[in-house]
Amino acid sequence: MRIPTAAITAGSLVGGWQAARQTGVRPLGGVVLAAGGVLAGREWARTVGPVATGALVATYVGAFGLSHPLAKRIGAWPSVLVVAGITAGASYAVADRRAA
User: Fold this and answer.
1) Residue ranges in the chain assigned as alpha helix (H)
2) Where are the domains of the chain?
3) What pLDDT shows up at residue 98?
4) What is the largest CA-CA distance in the chain?
5) For 81-97, b where at least 16 C-beta lie within 10 A, e where not — what string?
6) pLDDT digits (tens, 9 = 90+) for 14-31
7) Residue 2: which pLDDT band, with cuts at 50, 70 and 90?
8) Which end of the chain is more exposed for a tag (fewer CB within 10 A), N or C?
């Protein structure tokens, strides 16, 4: 059973943030984030090629980076949900829609 990369990326952004927040161990959140990125990246590389994979990886990493300054403006939960939604939307549009 194939898990859509939109779910993987959104889930790992939210899950990584929650893992770091609940445990107080920021590197644990990074592990969750990295695991989601590797899992999604492998699927992208297999299905959409190197250019689209690079763009999606940049979106994923950029979303993580954007969440921090965005959280200062709109709050942590809203920020994480916004960047997870952006990343999931990009993943769906570029990779998952083709596989459906």
Assistant:
1) 5-23, 26-47, 49-74, 76-91, 97-99
2) 5-99
3) 77
4) 39
5) bbbbebbbebbbebbbe
6) 999 999 999 999 999 999
7) confident
8) N
